[in-house]
Amino acid sequence: MSDAPVPAPRGASRTAVGVAALRWLHQSVDGEPKVLDDPISGPLLGESMLRTVAAHLGDPHAPALRELRAHVVLRSRFCEDHLAAAVARGATQLIVLGAGLDTFAYRQPAWARQLRIYEVDHPDSQAQKRHLLAQAQIAIPDNVEFVAIDFEQTSLADGLKAAGVDSSRQSFFSCLGVTMYLTEVAVDALFGLVARFPAGSEIVFTYQPEAQAAESALGRRVGALGEPWTYHISHRSLARKLKALGFQALEELAPRAAQARYFQDRTDGLRAPSRRGIAAAVVGVAPQ
């Protein structure tokens, strides 16, 4: 891995680097089996950036950092498990919203190669990612498209249409670590857009539950990086909102279910995070 400096464009997300570093820490300090196998995050960030971020994060075995790391790898694993099921039932497009330094496309399994993958993010964040990919000599797969959207200039619907996303095809949306940075109007528009895709389309997303929103340590930390949380909602209100748009029942991954499904019988002390807010919703059949 190169030690060359990485440009940090004005609008590039700083939290995206932290999330990628947490995925790398899971590979390097946690035991087996991995909740998420991600051999790409480390090479993508490079040794120099990894050292800087690791020093900033502190002791990887500290309880707060261990829980945050568990949340980050859990949400990606949950999303990728749901994506595999969506592909099995006919999804042909993957739209990664707020793609940041997500690595799924660069370690995609054989079953994903039939997908058209659209990575959507701010132009500055995408410029940084493309630089890092080139620096690490990580090839961009043929089925990947970068969709650079500045939401101050272009709507998500217009940006996806211009990129060639086909709204008549069953699709899967990944929206991890995004909704808490948006306004309620923007969140409603996002869910409304997904709801217009064919029945069976799905979105896996994270959100900030209302009960956990007030001055959490993580919220203060990302706010200090200049990326404050602006949106939170109760599970009940979210379920009503999605039902009104035509989604099937909201599935939220509860801590107890996450522990049983992904963290059972571990010997390294890594446990399912206590925080909630990882969810999935499938577009239902439109009413006649």
Estimate the global geometry from the Cα principal axes. Answer: globular
Question: Could you name the CATH homologous superfamily?
Answer: Vaccinia Virus protein VP39
Count of distinct structural domains: 1
Query: Radius of gyration from the CA trace?
Result: 18 Å
CATH architecture: 3-Layer(aba) Sandwich
**Structural class by helix and strand composition:** alpha/beta
Let me know the average pLDDT.
88
Count of individual helical segments: 9
Quote the beta fraction. Answer: 5-15%
Just give the CATH class: Alpha Beta
Largest sheet: 7 strands, mixed
Describe this structure in words.
Keywords: Methyltransferase, S-adenosyl-L-methionine, Transferase. It holds the Pfam family LCM. Its EC number is 2.1.1.-. Strands 3-2-1-4-5-7-6 form a 7-stranded mixed sheet, sandwiched between helices. It has a single domain (14-282), classed as Vaccinia Virus protein VP39 (Rossmann fold, 3-Layer(aba) Sandwich). It has helices at 14-29, 41-57, 63-88, 123-135, 156-163, 184-195, 217-224, 235-245, 255-262; strands spanning 93-97, 116-121, 144-148, 171-175, 202-206, 251-252, 278-282. The model is unreliable at 1-10 and 222-226 (pLDDT under 50). Helix 1 packs across helix 2 (41-57) and helix 1 crosses helix 3 (63-88). With 288 residues, it is α/β, with parallel strands linked by helices.
List the helices and strands and how they pair.
Elements: H1 14-29, H2 41-57, H3 63-88, E1 93-97, E2 116-121, H4 123-135, E3 144-148, H5 156-163, E4 171-175, H6 184-195, E5 202-206, H7 217-224, H8 235-245, E6 251-252, H9 255-262, E7 278-282
Parallel strand pairs: 1-2, 1-4, 2-3, 4-5
Antiparallel strand pairs: 5-7, 6-7
Helix pairs in contact: 1-2, 1-3
Pfam families: LCM
GO molecular function: methyltransferase activity
Keywords: Methyltransferase, S-adenosyl-L-methionine, Transferase
